Amino acid sequence: MSNACPISLDVIVVNVIVIFFLNPPFVSLPTFVFASSSDFHFVVFDDLNQFHGDYSPPSPPPPSLPPLPPSATCEGDLKGFGSLNTLCKLNSSLDLVSDVYIEGNGSLEINSGVNISCLFPGCSVTVNLSGDFQLGQNASIVAGSVWVMASNANLFDGSIVNVSALGGAPPAQTSGTPAGLQGAGGGHGGRGASCLTDNTKLPEDVWGGDAYAWKELDKPWSFGSKGGTMSKEKDFGGGGGGRIKLNVAGSIEVKGSLLADGGNAGVKGGGGSGGSIYIKAHKMTGNARISASGGNGFAGGGGGRVSVDVFSMHDDQEILVHGGKSYGCPKNSGGAGTLYDAVPRRLIICNHNMSTETDTLLLEFPNLPLWTNVYIQNHAKATVPLLWSRVQVQGQLSLSCGAVLTFGLAHYPSSEFELMAEELLMSNSLIKVYGALRMSVKMHLMLNSKMLIDGDGDSIVATSLLEVSNLLVLKESSVIRSTANLGIHGQGYLNLSGPGNLIEAQHLILSLYYSINVGPGSLLRGPLKNASTNNVTPHLYCERQDCPIELLHPPEDCNVNSSLAFTLQICRVEEVNVEGTVEGSVVHFHWVRSVAVLPTGAISATGLGCMGGVGQGKLSSNGYGGGGGHGGEGGDGYNNGIFVDGGIAYGDANLPCELGSGSGNSTLPGSTAGGGIIVMGSLEHSLTSLSIDGSLTADGESFGEDVRRQDEAILANIGPGGGSGGTILLFIHSLTLEDSSFISTIGGYGGPNGGGGGGGGRIHLHWSDIPVGDEYQPMAKVRGRIEMRGGLGRGQGRPGKEGTITGRACPRGLHGIFCEECPVGTFKNVSGSDRALCFDCPAYELPNRAIFVAVRGGVTETPCPYKCVSDRYHMPNCYTTLEELVYTFGGPWLFGLFLLGLLIVLALVLSVARMKFAGGDELPGLLPPRRHAQLDHSFPFLESLNEVLETNRTEESQSHVHRTYFLGPNTFSEPWHLPHSPPEQVKYIVYEDAFNRFVDEVNGIASYQWWEGSVYSILSVVAYPLAWSWLQWRRREKLQRLREFVRSEYDHSCLRSCRSRALYEGLKVSATSDLMLAYMDFYLGGDEKRPDLPPALHQRFPMSLVFGGDGSYMAPFYLHNDNILTSLMSQSVPPTVWYRLVAGLNAQLRLVRRGQLKMTFGPIIRWLETHANPTLNSHGIRIDLAWFHPTSFGYSQFGLVICASEPGHIKAIGGDTNGSSSPGKQSSLQRIQKANKVDHLKEREELLLHKKINGVILHAKNLGMLKDWKSICYALNFMVRNTMPIGHQDLIGLGLSILLLGDFSLVLLTLIQLYSISLLDFFLVLFILPLGIILPFPAGINALFSQGPKKSAGLARIHALWNVTSLANVITALICGFVHDKTLSGSSPIDFNSWKFSRDESEWWLLPCGLILCKLVQARLIDYHIANQEIQDHSLYSKDADKFWQP
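Given the sequence above, the corresponding structure tokens read:
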């Protein structure tokens, strides 16, 4: 369906017709009755809705049908072909002169071009067929009334059913035809227009023919009314439209036109009103034009009525019911008719965009069932004229395109109306209400529309209530205005979206919404501006000095109550966002959670207070006045030497709720009013959050310059004062004032001729539930302005006094109007808001390195909290952990004495424990040789094996042939290795090729894996003592592996002796105790049959003995002596002499230091010449210090070369009866030989070459050839080095215990100090090197409590290494302390107000330096302790040779 006003069809529903019979009740089905001359034909519809909805009384029985005329015949009366009981075809046109009734069981076809006409008004053409009805192309039926009943109907292109202007008489007792000679239009569905101008009447009160047949709206069957005339002689009015009813059981196709328009009348008569068109079918198709519009004339006729009851509509039909044009008043066309769509139950009132001031009456709306939608469109103007009426629809009530809907009569604004719908949609439309409106919708959308409620005619009906439960939106200058009281409530969202949108009333209440948004340029106002004074005008409590109870304890129901003081209230709303303006005399936000005033927003009561009031400024007789007073007194007015007093101050500053006062009176032009009052929240329900980025003002009114310019003559000699500021009373929990925001109750400016300024108003912040203590949160964030100053006087008028701003009394710890925390360094232990109640904290309670700090909720008592200036000072009184420990014992001196005493006591305890648990030295016993072991001689081979197992060391030395030393220091970079060529001494007992293979295997076993060296390198960097322990462990493992290989795995194939090969003997690997020097001994197997083997001692000369060690602190040089060597030497030298010589030589070798070989080998050479060789010469032996040429890696070995003192001079030991020569005799012999000494040096070197010994004999002249390799650890030689023993072992042990405990104590104190400085410094010192600063203590304890001199000395050396290594950690501590000290000294000074604090830490270096000193002294004592343990015979260092050799 289409027309000038587009509409949409909803779901189609069949009408319910229910007829109740009294006894018994039953529901009958609706039927359509078709009568013939002999019987009735019934068409029954079974698809019906059941009875539902509210109960309504039964309808009266329908009137009895009038007798039907006889049916016309097909061929006789209609001049057609066929029969009406089968098929009747009309091929020729007919001009009828009377009503015609066509009835039959067949079908009727009116062929193309056939015209059937009956041109007198009211002429009736009725067709009642059981078959189909067809109106051919360009065929027509013209009559006053056309009723077609058939199974199906088809109106082809160009066909027309036209009843325009041929309507009969309208129903009786109607006034559709206008009276008089005004040429008004006829009325039917809409009123006829009237171009009569009557200044005594409103435009709404002037119309032509009235509307009628409202009850036939769903099934219209009334003729339109004739239009009025402007001539008595002739009726120029247009005829009313006729009637068309198409009642089709099946489908209808309309491609032609159905016209029931009112007749046109020209300029001398009014247009007739449209008639009635009713279409009922199951299905409708075709692009039909259906019109029941009013006729044109001097005044247009009203539109008719159209009803469509079609279950299924297709295509787009054009349906028109607009009023006719008015030539006499073009802007006032006839009123629109009605279009009722029965299936979706919707009513459409559309005037086809023809402007009009003529109404379409909407009378009684059905309540069973409800209409779904009502559309008022395209300049249609609808009126509900009843004194009380309910307009209720199930779906939408839509007004658009200039539509107007009026409730009530303009002259009787005392009616009450109800409007109920799901949605109220308004677009460029208007709703006018005369009286009160009770509206209930779920959604109300307004676009450039207005809702005007004129309710001030009767105070009984002065309150209108608009319930919009879900959504109320005003856009594009939409307005809701009530001249009385207005309440708008809902549950969803109210949005005034932009400029021009307005909601205002004398008393305005918005309630129950979740969110209200006042957009930019929008306005909420209460009361009306410049409204006339009547019985609904708000009565302000200007003369009262007490507070209306409803301002502090408002009602909870949020109902509209004009007796209360509020003029604008927003009640029970979650969120209010103000970007526009909220304006009122008494503005109240009650039970609102949050209010946000955005930068463009304003909540204002400026100039809306009292013109009089308690503080009204005085007024002189000549029109000059003082300013109004309120929070401050009004300024005095002044003119011609006369002062006029300003108003007094009044009200309670601690809980203000008064209106501002003005100056002047109601009869004086330019009088000013005070500010109103803005209340947010109440004592019971405070506002949770108030955020202001705009303004919140209740300023007094200033004298307006615009008023002065309007009438200069009248206002030239007057000067009223300015109005006083009003009141802003905030019951809130939190407040935010942004930079551009302001809250003000400023007094107004006085008049230009000496008017006094208004006094400032009052502002009170009544905080609710002020949190205290740890729960405190700042309640106000104020960056904007709060002003309550007085207004300026003009001329010589005086300014008003400043108003007041107060807050609720703050609890302890808080002060000020915003209940902020007292300033840092103050405390408040009483309730109140005065800043003077925050007392200064006692300065004596503040430690030196501390400043007072703020705490949440403020300080409520002393002592005031403080914090240290650095996190380092985390102990009480802002001490570091170390300082806290020191001052706990009374200060540095007492702590030092206490620590020293404690160390001595602990050291004594350690010494006693050491003597108890480690006092006895281990003296390893030698197992006696098992000389008398019983041997089994039954088996030769077993006898030989038993001999090997039972052979003691003496027997073993008798078969010893030669000792070969491994090359290399047994390190990861240079492991042990043997030269491939066998020595000259063993060439006769080995196979050279097999020996070379044996050497390859041994060298392969002696080499290390790459990862072992990598671990050593890492540990050398991280912790060198661990690296040394790792190296010794791997050396022991390597030696054990070599021994097992030679003893068990190797088959001794290189030996010539069959017995050695069979018994896996003849080769033996051993090493010195420091695991740096290894050697291999060769033995005879016993079956060689070589009488020259084994060689005697003199046959081995010159014989080399290599020193073990490398001259370092951990491995000093020493001569390794074993039973084999002693047994060999005993052939010339008594064992006691040899033992003494070896002991003395090793004592001297301890003092040799690698890196200082040139200097430290000199005393060794001198000692050999003064102590050793003089005694050995008596036995025919001489020893010299020798340097054996370095290996390919540069490692050099040192040792002794033993040779005969004189050629051929070898003295046998056996010649001595005592088995040894006395040292005294040797000394005498030494002196004799010294006198006859011959230099055999050159001879000895030649012997070395002859023996192929690759070395050089060292003497004083060639020591310079040695190269002193100084490694990176050379500097450590000044801290740790091997020294001569000094004795006093117990005293040294006690001192070492004291230093060890002192070292550990200083380490702990240093770490505590560093932890106080920085956790990073703490970890740097602790882990560079890792735990190096901690481990010397357990290493020292382990060394002190070890048993045996040898083990104690070895562990003491490890302790010494840890002690030296820890210096890196101590130096790191010094660096960290230095950096920290420089950082503090270089930082800019900090202002801590007047508090004095000290950060004196200039002694930070004491502990690290003390620790260094302790470690240096401890290193010396460790050296002495090691020397005492290793050298217990101090005579070994005697410089007198005689004393040295004394037994």
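The mean pLDDT is 84. Try to locate this feature in the token string yourself.
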